[in-house]
Design goal:
By secondary structure, the protein is α/β, with parallel strands linked by helices. Helix content is 37%, strand content 18%. Helix 3 crosses helix 10 and helix 4 (40-50) packs across helix 10 (194-215). It is globular and about 50 Å long.
Amino acid sequence: MTPDRLSRFARHIVLPEIGGVGQMALGNAHVVMIGCGGIGSPALQYLAASGVGRLTLIDDDSVEASNLQRQTIFAEADIGTPKAQAAADWVARFDPEIAVSHHQTRISTDNAPTLIAGATLVLDGCDNFATRLAVSDACVAAQIPLTTAAVGRFQGQIANFAGHLSGHACYRCFVGDAFDATDCDTCAADGVLGAFVGMVGTMAAQSAIRVILHGAGAPGPLADPQWGRLHLLDGLAPSLRTITIPADPACAAH
């Protein structure tokens, strides 16, 4: 690590829970991010700031004026630009040493295995169940951990799944097969508070960091990936409670 990089990540390195070993693990990590919107924006900012060395960004949408209320990496000048491209441009400006690539496409059962290949971790913040299940199934098949985060009005959900490990749940174990559809509630119809989406995206970034540190054998509770523990965030109270998702023996992904 060069002196400039040591200085940049000094506040991480002095944490015993991260240290030099953990920071090197972050620098060697490859995170594939599904969705660069309300959850993806703050998650991307904090993963990039933490020193994740390689990012692959996947989104088929373009920036709209209504996105600017919560999708914090975009500005008015980005309106009409594909989100994946604008997000990759943000990363390049923020830290030119991060290897970033982007795909302006909707991830599906057909292309998911190719798009996530070689990832250390997949972080999914997309807005429909069909995509989430396709990503989860691909992660199980490729033996890649999955961080998933979602928001519905003032309810947030964040979890790490390792469905490829024996006895551990995957995302499909959580929601079942009934949601293999593109129809779902949208923030356009229901509304959403930008600051709350930012809280969920930031928690997703920290959950992803847990997985990366766990893989590097870092010490301490921060390196506990908390597999299958679903954190439910109530933005109105505010409050946080956690439930454990058991592995489903009949899950189609296993």
